[in-house]
Amino acid sequence: MTKHFRCIVPMISAVFAIVMSAGATAPSAQAETISISLHLKQLPLSARKGSRVDQVGDLVYRGGIRIISSERRFGGLSGLIVSRDGSSFLSVSDQADWVTGTLNYEDGRLVGISDVTIGPILDEQGNPLVHKKGDAEAVEQLDPDGPFPGSVVVSFERHHRLWRYDLQDNGFETLPSDLQIPAQLEAIEGNRGIEALHVTDDGTVIAVTEGTFDDDGRTLGWVMQLNEDKRSVARSEQILLETWGTFRPTDLTRLPDGRFFVLQRHFSPQTGPIIQVRDLGDQVPQQDDVLAGTLLAQFNMAYNIDNMEGIAARQTEDGRTLIYIVSDDNFNPLQRTVLLMFEVVPTPEPEPIAPVETE
What is the pTM of this model? Predict the structure, then answer.
């Protein structure tokens, strides 16, 4: 680690630790749907001056941006979906806002976003969600082949639940319906609920917690089969995710070839944030399955990452697989909102990558 990084890691880490333990609080603002202006900065993958890195593990960098806005409600992005054609995105913030816009490319690289709109996520009475009831952590489409974004499922922490929003009906004015999560999940301690979420095309919800474990230290999750109309849970079964050191899952996506990728984050004052992308295989988990994956790539503060919390995947017209990763800045001026895009390199038997020590 260079002298520059040795100097900045303790400062950023101290702020990051305070925010992560206390929970971010965004400045109060009038809850209305508005278009916002942005300042964008294209980012190299490496954060070290003069260093050029385009590939880490099985991921080839295809562009990324830092996103800055004077709008005080912008930030805290904790989930991400991208349209099948790559033209649009939808995210949720952990202060209960929708954020949507257009993705911009040049020569196959992500270079910006535009036409960004932010609007409040509503409760069942049509009121903007506030405080702990508004801690949205993930969003997934129910019908990826339909209009974008269409019907989506949003997971919330602290006041744990899964809500369905049919955005194709009334946009951000849509009221939710409750999918009724397992009672065991409702009882989870505060900030340890569903962080990683995916819904398969047939209506199977895979939900993994951030910091709730079984007696053997494995991360708790559930696989829930929705009813035919995808408006309620027909049955739910517990699953487990293998725990790798102090890494915790922050989101989950499924590639067009059927493989599940989990995004994970580690943080300590000594290292700052470190993220991993792991391949969990292509089988939909069943009751009592223990998901154990292959490490595809790992990034520390030598790269232009931050508190990465959302991941989405799609396939291009020429058959390439792209993943997008977005960060949650916790509404903290010392953190950043970054959006990165990678191409997944088709390597059936990747060389093992040794994780850095985190403990």
Answer: 0.89
